[in-house]
Specification:
Structural class: mainly alpha
Keywords: Electron transport, Membrane, Mitochondrion, Mitochondrion inner membrane, Respiratory chain, Transport
Protein name: NADH dehydrogenase [ubiquinone] 1 alpha subcomplex subunit 12
Largest sheet: 3 strands, antiparallel
Main location: mitochondrion
Membrane topology: Peripheral membrane protein
Number of helices: 7
Shape: elongated
Family: Belongs to the complex I NDUFA12 subunit family.
Low-confidence stretches: none
Order of helices and strands: HHHEEEHHHH
Length: about 160
Amino acid sequence: MSNYLALDKIARFFRIIRKNGGLIGSIFKLWRTDTLKDGVLVGTDCFGNKYFENTYYMTSRCRWVEFNPMVKWDYDASQITAKWHGWIHYKTDKLPKDDCAKFCLYSCCWTQCWLLPHEENLSGTDKAFYPFKTTKDHIAVWDGCSVSTRAAKANICRA
């Protein structure tokens, strides 16, 4: 009877509202991420990102990340650490805490010497990497003259 009246869907709607921080919290999360989801928190990373899973959703939608609220609107996919990248993209079903190879890699003191900490992609920001030039430019800026009139214009400027 409840299936015909869709009471289970209404109950699920209110459960999602409650899990996302009530009415105000749900409106804010909907405004920030364009979706409301209900799932199990499976872990967090060193930046405060929270990783969730709900197998009720279809395969490509059942895992997601909620980025740290401190980044506000400047979140992007490069803020997902390498530990969680494989899990969020369905390359493995093992969580980083359950993966023996990752645990051995990150707990070894020798790897700590050369393994750099994760940092997001900074392209398009003030901190972006711009390499310096080591070669002369092959293309000259056009000055409005043809090659044949360029020498005559240079002689006029000298006079």
